[in-house]
Specification:
Involved in the digestion of the blood meal. By secondary structure, the protein is an alpha/beta fold. The protein is built from 12 helices and 14 strands. A hairpin with a 2-residue loop joins β9 and β10. α6 crosses α12. Bound molecules: arginine (ARG) and zinc ion (ZN). The site of arginine has 11 residues, from α11.
Length: about 400
């Protein structure tokens, strides 16, 4: 009995969720190929890591062991080229996990850009900033999550009574996109702690939510759930979570969202079914009079997207949205970063309704609304390796300066 017990716990230790999962980089050669791959989007068994788009050279797809045979047969039948990007995902995740553990814990209240921080470390940093910079920083608890974690917005303002225009930024609506909270934290760090950026606070207030899906973020940091994307609410007997970025009430469920509670892009039982999206909605409605720019960070794909996500029609101010995105991209490239593809969500990607960006523009009336898909890790897994975080977030920050100046000049 005892021996069985020991053996069993050993088994549990080595049992792995992503053993033999593969990630394929699929290279469509024409529109037909893209449409054939598009058909796979609606099967809930494959997980598109990077998004399928008409101008991307390749798309990365995670395939569980039991689907690999059919998947490869489908590609071969239609003569679609592919490469194996990751042969065994479990190995890559284990490696990332070990590396994370080896990086020493930061002191409470300090933030690191050489590792992905835990939700607690992120909050401790925010509270430390409030203490150290009390005339610049104010924290606002905007509500609690399904698992009762607090959602904290940091308000950065050098003149709170000036009624300045507000830039609102969030990250981490999707749990596994770890680079997004890291990026957002770097923006906070630079705005608050780098005196060279003080002028960015002269005419603009910045309200920032670093982790929009805390339950999911924490869950994705447990070893067997690295690829978790959704919230953590109970939806069906064996299926948890809603895709928060399909849960906003604006043409909810019209396109690119699943009705299957077990699917990764589940839209939820009703619009704003999730307490996390409710909290974000209520906060944005509260600041909407002054909010002039909404930025939401995701990964990956190197894209700057603007509405609409629910339709291929373009918004009335598409020219302004595109021109500003180009300036942002130019600044990122100039800082040594990658070049981003720019366009409306539906035209650059696929239609997907219920996103926070569409809602911010369509309902809250924040006309300048963008989703930024940051770089990903590819061979190294979903996110870039921790030792590259600082480089990437610093390059992207060059684009934030452009956004800040644009808002301060326009309003
Ligand atoms: N990768 C993001 C997602 O799938 C893109 C969102 C773009 N915006 C939209 N409203 N579809 O959620
Ligand atoms: Zn995302």
């Amino acid at each position: 009995m005892y021996i069985v017990g020991v053996f069993y716990s050993l088994l549990v230790l080595v049992s792995a969720n992503y053993e033999s999962y593969k990630v394929y980089s699929v290279i469509p050669a024409n529109r037909t190929h893209i449409e054939l791959l598009g058909l796979l989007l609606s099967t809930d068994k494959l997980d598109f890591w990077s998004r399928l788009s008409y101008d991307s050279r390749s798309v990365d797809i995670m395939v569980p062991p039991q689907e690999q045979r059919d998947f490869i047969m489908y590609l071969k039948k239609h003569d679609i080229q592919y490469e194996v990007l990751i042969d065994n995902l479990e190995t890559v995740i284990q490696r990332e996990h070990v590396k994370q553990q080896l990086i020493p814990r930061t002191f409470r209240g300090k933030i690191s850009f050489s590792k992905y921080n835990t939700f607690n470390d992120i909050n401790a940093y925010l509270y430390q900033l409030q203490m150290d910079y009390h005339n610049l920083v104010k924290l606002q608890n905007i509500g609690t999550t399904y698992e009762k974690r607090g959602m904290v917005v940091i308000q950065i303002s050098s003149n709170p009574s000036a009624n300045n225009p507000i830039i609102f930024i969030d990250g981490g609506i999707h749990a596994r996109e770890w680079i997004a909270p890291a990026q957002v934290l770097y923006i906070i760090n630079q705005l608050v702690e780098n005196p060279a950026n003080r002028d960015l606070l002269d005419d603009v207030d910045w309200h920032i939510l670093p982790v929009a899906n805390p339950d999911g973020y924490e869950y994705s940091q447990t070893i067997n759930h690295r690829m978790w994307r959704k919230t953590r609410s109970q939806q069906a007997k064996n299926c948890m979570g809603t895709d928060a970025n399909r849960n906003f009430e604006f043409y909810w469920g019209l396109s690119g969202a699943s009705s299957n509670p077990c699917a990764d892009t589940y839209k939820g039982p009703k619009p704003f079914s999730e307490v996390e999206t409710q909290n974000l909605r209520d906060y944005l409605l509260k600041i909407k009079k002054n909010a002039k720019l909404y930025l939401t960070f995701h990964s990956y794909g190197n894209l700057i997207l603007y509405p609409w996500g629910y339709t291929s029609e373009l918004p009335h101010d598409e020219f302004e949205l595109r021109t500003l995105a180009k300036e942002v991209n130019d600044a990122i490239v100039k800082a040594g970063g990658p070049s981003y593809t720019i366009g409306s969500s539906t035209n650059v990607l696929y239609a997907a309704a219920g996103g926070s960006d569409d809602w911010a523009k369509g309902v809250a009336g924040i006309e300048l609304s963008y989703t930024i898909e940051l770089p990903g890790g590819k061979k190294n897994g979903f996110d870039i390796p921790a030792n590259e975080i600082l480089k990437v977030v610093n390059q992207t920050f060059a684009g934030m300066i452009v956004y800040g100046k644009y808002i301060s000049v326009k309003y």
